[in-house]
Design a protein that fits this description.
mainly alpha; 1% strand; disordered N terminus
């Protein structure tokens, strides 16, 4: 009887949404095939990331909001688990310098004022927007029209910042420091795991801790396919998928470079010329601007994340496009997206590229990023009522 009641409460999968997601995934594969099997595999990784993010409801902005407003630490503790698992996976590969014949580089950047300013701005933006870099993509896939507005502003903000990168580069900055390269990988892993463990224990104390999401009563294959997943499962899956990205792409998972690129391509269509711009005249950026988006690793993976979340929403029976927005919510979406785009570009990434991948690579800039993104989140939360948001 109880099983029948549980089944009745679970929404049925949506065949229309699943068919649309499958058709779009086939188009993504077809567009990626000319770039080789590696790009197809990276597109598939993106799909798996989107499915994981949706089914585990793995958000960064929401976890930081819960920590600040309710002292709920469940989401942040899941992030600590993810970082610990990724550190253990990344360290041997980065120490060796290559994997399966492919040269590997970590997400390493200077821990200076540029990162601090970018992270602070990003923290403000993600609370106004109601989502981070990965959150924007997976909620778009889940049917949120509001997050489409955030995404458009995100792209504009990233492009806007790219036009100022030469000025930011003139600021004094320390040398980039990766603990693994400076102190040896064994010592770095032990130190980083000790810090992550201490933070987890602190957040697990009675005055902070809240109840973990219970496992489904019947954790069978159907539940796995339709969700929801425990946060810990999502954390471990994302660590494995980031490591797979490192192995296939030669660098860790990133998200927001693609937004900057899309913004630049849109600006070019509107008449902007990259000639003479220091940032867009560099070899990598100019090649990406002149090539198809399906030749860009980050773009292809981002497309995959949206499609994976679309499929997950269809499997869960929860794909419901939502479009009505108040003027205040629209303004917050635009301002938040612009702030995140600008902050991510100057701060060497977002919650994924700078924080997750940076810390997993033992780069100090990843730790600096979160140290400033949290105060930024506090400011963003204080500003939400100005836009009629709660």
């Amino acid at each position: 009887m109880q099983q029948a009641a549980d089944a009745a409460r679970v929404p049925a999968p949506q065949p229309g949404a699943l068919a649309a997601a499958a058709a779009l995934a086939l188009l993504l594969v077809a567009a990626s095939v000319p770039q080789g099997g590696r790009m197809v595999a990276l597109a598939a990784l993106g799909v798996l990331m989107g499915l994981t993010l949706y089914h585990a409801a793995f958000g960064f902005a929401s976890a930081f909001r819960a920590l600040i407003e309710r002292r709920s630490t469940r989401g942040v503790r899941a992030q600590l688990l993810m970082l610990a698992a990724a550190t253990l996976l990344f360290a041997p590969a980065l120490a060796g310098g290559s994997l399966f014949g492919r040269e590997l580089v970590g997400a390493i950047a200077p821990a200076g004022f540029q990162v601090a300013a970018g992270a602070l701005l990003f923290g403000i933006g993600m609370q106004l927007a109601g989502g981070c870099g990965s959150g924007t993509l997976y909620t778009v896939g889940g049917g949120s029209a509001r997050m489409l507005l955030v995404l458009a502003a995100f792209c504009a903000g990233g492009f806007w910042a790219s036009l100022h990168m030469d000025a930011w580069a003139q600021l004094p900055a320390p040398e980039a420091i990766a603990l693994g390269e400076t102190y040896g990988w064994t010592a770095a892993v032990v130190l980083q795991l000790a810090v992550l463990g201490a933070l987890w224990a602190l957040l697990k104390r009675p005055r902070w801790a809240d109840a973990d999401r219970p496992l489904p009563a019947h954790a069978d294959l159907a539940r796995f396919v339709k969700g929801p997943w425990p946060l810990a499962a999502g954390a471990l899956a994302l660590a494995l998928l980031n490591f797979a990205t490192l192995a296939l792409a030669g660098h860790p998972w990133s998200i927001t470079w693609a937004f900057t690129l899309w913004g630049a391509k849109a600006a070019r269509l509107l008449g902007w010329s990259p000639e003479g711009d220091a940032f867009w005249s560099a070899d990598f950026q100019r090649a990406a601007l002149d090539s198809s988006v399906f030749a860009d690793v980050t773009s292809v993976m981002d497309f995959g994340i949206v499609l994976g979340a679309f499929a997950a929403a269809g499997l869960a029976g929860r794909f419901r496009p939502r479009g009505a927005l108040s003027a205040g919510a629209a303004a917050a979406a635009l301002i938040g997206g612009l702030a995140m785009g600008y902050g991510a570009r100057i701060g060497f990434g977002c919650n994924i590229g700078a924080f997750f991948s940076g810390v997993a690579s033992t780069s100090l800039h990843g730790w600096l990023w979160i140290a400033l993104a949290l105060p930024g989140s506090w400011v963003g939360l204080k500003a939400r009522p100005l836009f009629g948001l709660h």
